[in-house]
Amino acid sequence: MIYYQDPDRKPVYSVEPRQTADGRPFRAVQASEDISFEEKPEGVERTAQADKGRILYYRNPMGLPDTSPVPKKDSMGMDYLPVHEGEASEDGIIKLSPGRIQRSGVRSEPVRRQTIAQTVRVPGVVQLDERRISVVAIRADAFVQEVAPVTTGDRVAKGTRLARIYSPEISTAGAQFITELNAAARGVPEGGARQRLENLGVPAEIIAEIERSRKVPPTVNWTAPRDGIVLERNISDGMKMAAGGSLFRLADISTIWVLADVPERDLAEIRIGAPATVRLRGRPDMSFEGRVGVIYPQIAEATRTAKVRIELANPDGVLLPNMYADVEIGAGDATAELAVPRSAVIDSGTRSVVILDRGKGRFEPREVKLGRRGDGMVAITEGVSESDRVVVSANFLIDAESNLKAALSGFAQPEAKP
């Protein structure tokens, strides 16, 4: 026994034998009895015991796989607990009184089928869109007559004059073009002078001006082929450029890439089209939304990571090449699966257990297999069904109950019955 209680079950207790004012002795409470501070009318306990049916056998009070056909005590002097008819099929069930459940703060939730959003957080670097880079080159030997006041880093619009050049080869082709135009006016078929000018990269507006005025301009204005920023300026006034030489290098940054380094272990969760959020380390107040466009088919040996490309709109030009960024990628697929809150899982490292709420103060431990995790949820691939309820609060207190320890040992060794 562990204490004494008022014979009328009033909330009056004593650690030593004592009597009431009218001389009646306090009732001895055994360690094996369920503690409850709820008052019960006299005779209710006897009626409840009678309603349980006949006793089949007695089980160890500490939950050990040991039973007896007759009442007995264990080595510590604790009474074996009776198993009544109708209770034998509930092996592994832990029973708690309503008062104990309320005091312990036990709370349960249903198992739900839902999509688990897992987020992979990795570093990234802003890079130019390779498809939007242009090299302004000349296809004939030429002299740079004058360079426009455009420098590296300047933003230019399509058609902006970049340089004025003189090319003997272009002038010769222009003169031949005029000759063919005059001959065509007399009915002679036009030759290939126009095509030659186009092959030399002469802008269409210059060709149109030659056709209209029938004059070859001494110099030709070389213009920007697209909107963008100047990455390189390779010419100066008076330079001679060989055919194929690069005058300028331009990049359109209205759309830009972010290359994220995803660890090898997370690659299986990344899919094309997955949503991604990018935050600049230099501008943490700003975020950009995009989607995974390409997963590069190569692992870096030094870092064991793969490049994942995210394409972002950059209308304000805030994203600049080589900026550092923090990237969050939504991983996993859109398939709904059984899931429970992360607090519902008791993970020992070798196995995972959840506590099922069977109702009426009954709880059952269940070993489960876990899937992906995310947003405070854990997917359960085996061990529960959609109709189950799991304990999400105070489950570790239930785990401390001796009956639960017996149920867990029963996974390896079923309880013997007479």
TrEMBL record:
<feature type="compositionally biased region" description="Basic and acidic residues">
    <location>
        <begin position="1"/>
        <end position="11"/>
    </location>
</feature>
<comment type="similarity">
    <text>Belongs to the membrane fusion protein (MFP) (TC 8.A.1) family.</text>
</comment>
<feature type="region of interest" description="Disordered">
    <location>
        <begin position="1"/>
        <end position="51"/>
    </location>
</feature>
<dbReference type="Pfam" id="PF25919">
    <property type="entry name" value="BSH_CusB"/>
</dbReference>
<dbReference type="GO" id="GO:0015679">
    <property type="term" value="P:plasma membrane copper ion transport"/>
</dbReference>
<dbReference type="InterPro" id="IPR058790">
    <property type="entry name" value="BSH_CusB"/>
</dbReference>
<dbReference type="Pfam" id="PF25954">
    <property type="entry name" value="Beta-barrel_RND_2"/>
</dbReference>
<protein>
    <submittedName>
        <fullName>Efflux RND transporter periplasmic adaptor subunit</fullName>
    </submittedName>
</protein>
<keyword id="KW-0406">Ion transport</keyword>
<dbReference type="InterPro" id="IPR051909">
    <property type="entry name" value="MFP_Cation_Efflux"/>
</dbReference>
<feature type="compositionally biased region" description="Basic and acidic residues">
    <location>
        <begin position="37"/>
        <end position="51"/>
    </location>
</feature>
<dbReference type="InterPro" id="IPR058792">
    <property type="entry name" value="Beta-barrel_RND_2"/>
</dbReference>
<dbReference type="Pfam" id="PF25975">
    <property type="entry name" value="CzcB_C"/>
</dbReference>
<keyword id="KW-0813">Transport</keyword>
<dbReference type="InterPro" id="IPR006143">
    <property type="entry name" value="RND_pump_MFP"/>
</dbReference>
<dbReference type="GO" id="GO:0016020">
    <property type="term" value="C:membrane"/>
</dbReference>
<feature type="domain" description="CusB-like barrel-sandwich hybrid">
    <location>
        <begin position="134"/>
        <end position="251"/>
    </location>
</feature>
<dbReference type="GO" id="GO:0030288">
    <property type="term" value="C:outer membrane-bounded periplasmic space"/>
</dbReference>
<dbReference type="GO" id="GO:0046914">
    <property type="term" value="F:transition metal ion binding"/>
</dbReference>
<dbReference type="GO" id="GO:0060003">
    <property type="term" value="P:copper ion export"/>
</dbReference>
<feature type="domain" description="CzcB-like C-terminal circularly permuted SH3-like">
    <location>
        <begin position="338"/>
        <end position="398"/>
    </location>
</feature>
<feature type="domain" description="CusB-like beta-barrel">
    <location>
        <begin position="255"/>
        <end position="331"/>
    </location>
</feature>
<dbReference type="InterPro" id="IPR058649">
    <property type="entry name" value="CzcB_C"/>
</dbReference>
<keyword id="KW-0732">Signal</keyword>
<dbReference type="GO" id="GO:0022857">
    <property type="term" value="F:transmembrane transporter activity"/>
</dbReference>
